[in-house]
Amino acid sequence: MTQFIIRRLIQLIPVLIGVTILVFSLMHLTPGNPAVIMAGESAPEATVKAIEARLGLDKPIHIQYFNFISNAVQLDFGNSIRDNIPVFDHIKARFFTTLELSVWAIIFGVFFGLLIGIISAVRRYSLLDVSLMVVALFGLSMPNFWLGLMLIQYFALELRIFKPTGWGSLEQNVLPIITLGTASAAIIARMTRSSMLDVIDQDYIRTARAKGVKERVVIFRHALKNALIPVVTIVGIQFGGLLAGAVLTESVFAINGLGRLIIDSILQRDFPVVQGAILVISVSFVLVNLIVDISYRMLNKRVDLN
Amino acid sequence: MKTEINQENILEINDLRTSFFVGKNEVKAVDGVTFQVPKGKTLGIVGESGSGKSITSLSILRLIDEPGKIVGGSINFKGEDLTKVSMSRMRQIRGNEISMIFQEPMTSLNPVYTIGQQLREAFKIHQGLGKKEGTKRAIEMLELVGIPSPDKRVNQYPFELSGGMRQRVMIAMALACKPELLIADEPTTALDVTIQAQILELIKELQEEIGMSVIMITHDLGVVAETCDYVAVMYAGNIVEYADVETLFEDPKHPYTVGLLNSLPRHDIEQDELIPIKGNVPAPDEMPTGCRFAPRCPHASEICKTHPELTETKDGNDVRCWIYTPDWDKEEVSVYDK
């Protein structure tokens, strides 16, 4: 297992190099000279040159990439163009908000997804099963910004149970977590149900029953562990998506997260911040996938990911 | 039946009926099955696919899944009617007093748990053994069923074992708590011929050692001849013939049994050619109202449009066929197309 993890970590290196090349290229793929865009169309030549020098844009491209990497490894993404504060400080403050939101959203999704999926599978084709799956379909089809707005309208403005904006207190956190986590809960529920139904008809479930195993143990020990194998993959993909997809939820609830930072920075052409933030999100995504692979292997001993 | 006279029976099944309900249709998979299993003996249940033999065996342990249901009859095991006992009593019986091995060793073990974990579970449920003691017993059981280096195998996963080895593990698991009755549902069908003989031999040996009774479900008359004391031949949800194994092979009565034996290559008698039984087992929703074998039977006549009862003949076979009743008219020609 340790060997497997080490091997996976080494395999991450080429992936990360690819990610950094893409992020680095962002600035250079944008039409026109980034320095001109930053300085404005009518800025004097000298100002443009100064910006180029400050950003190192006057050096050959491979030197620029090398500098970018060696700085990024030290968590130095340069300074924000807007306020000259180090990019890392901008990110640090907001990354944990986004991470916290995404982690709670995936916990919400996994908990309700598994619960609904298992109940549906055990009571298959019953009225309960059909209703739960219809609800899940709604959850899946709803755009989450719309769900967010509806939740604010009802629970914050009418019932006044929760606060409509911000992040930090329980009253503020509940609605964004539901908003961000609902789609995942729905996907996980549907996946768990079909996976459980698949497993429940397997011969080894009959073997377990023939052994005298209690029905509860049959479901949670014999069936669920097998059914979870495909679900883990979905959860991993979902979580990666939540990190990146928190943007909309953060906008709806005016949460100062990484998503909002990226949007604001794009609008203001604050390239160093955009680069840094996207790099952080990409690296997190890659790490989440690593964790998924590891848990996948722990669940299913047949998988040899080498 | 003669088995009632001189033997004590561990299991007596009376008029068992198990049906599947699809929409408003009732499909009678097992329709009035009656038989006994004498203590320490082996009963073979023989029949083609779809004859209801597996459903009969699953009914005994009440393992029939929705939309299937036992709709009538009784299953008497040591004085208890298993169709009436509570689910928690049923769980005490399963794997402890009555065990079962299944046809597909490749898929009958849980892929995400080790052999040891799965064996230990039986000890934990029925004998309350902890991990250490359970593992020790698991290794003993693996050794008993002839698995080499059991102390290593106990920590392996099913996918690391061959089909024959997995079936041995299934047997070890079934026999873990020394059951009084073992139901073996086609235990060798999915295995290579050489392995088949080993597994049958193993079951026989362990049967003698533990003194348990066995229900051997198979479509292979060779297996029956090899292992069974009594045989019930099933056709389309009914038992059509019941006899001890010598009588059945030497003097089969029911036209279906005769057909089965004729379609089997034999070394003990001279055969010019194998004669297959014409046609197929009727689909459950197209079941003939009379004798269910009549459409395929070379002797069928008018009276066969009425359902025959299982009746004892003077030679000791119980047969569900009009030929062996006083009502049979030899002169009458078949009403069915042959």
From TrEMBL, chain A:
Protein's cellular compartments: Cell membrane
InterPro entries linked: BPD_transp_1_N (IPR045621), MetI-like (IPR000515), MetI-like_sf (IPR035906)
GO cellular component terms given for this protein: plasma membrane
PROSITE patterns: ABC_TM1
ABC transmembrane type-1 domain span: 95-292
Assigned keywords, A-Z: Cell membrane, Membrane, Transmembrane, Transmembrane helix, Transport
Pfam families in the record: BPD_transp_1, BPD_transp_1_N
GO function term, MF aspect, one: dipeptide transmembrane transporter activity
Superkingdom of origin: Bacteria
Residues that span the membrane, as ranges: 12-30, 101-122, 134-154, 174-192, 227-253, 273-292
Membrane topology type: Multi-pass membrane protein
Family indicated by similarity: Belongs to the binding-protein-dependent transport system permease family.
Protein name as catalogued: Glutathione transport system permease protein GsiC
From TrEMBL, chain B:
Topological type in the membrane: Peripheral membrane protein
InterPro entries referenced in this protein's UniProt entry, alphabetically: AAA+_ATPase (IPR003593), ABC_Ni/Peptide_Import (IPR050388), ABC_transporter-like_ATP-bd (IPR003439), ABC_transporter-like_CS (IPR017871), Oligopep_ABC_C (IPR013563), P-loop_NTPase (IPR027417)
Keyword Secreted: no
Localization per Swiss-Prot or TrEMBL: Cell membrane
The keyword Cell division is annotated on this UniProt entry: no
Keywords: ATP-binding, Cell inner membrane, Cell membrane, Membrane, Nucleotide-binding, Translocase, Transport
GO terms of biological process kind: peptide transport
GO molecular function annotation: ATP binding; ATP hydrolysis activity
A cellular component annotation (GO) from this entry: plasma membrane
One Pfam short name: ABC_tran
Main localization of the protein described in the UniProt heading: membrane
Cross-referenced SUPFAM superfamilies: P-loop containing nucleoside triphosphate hydrolases (SSF52540)
Record field: transmembrane: none
Domain annotation ABC transporter: ranges: 11-261
Similarity comment text for this entry: Belongs to the ABC transporter superfamily.
Name used for this protein in its record: Oligopeptide transport ATP-binding protein OppD
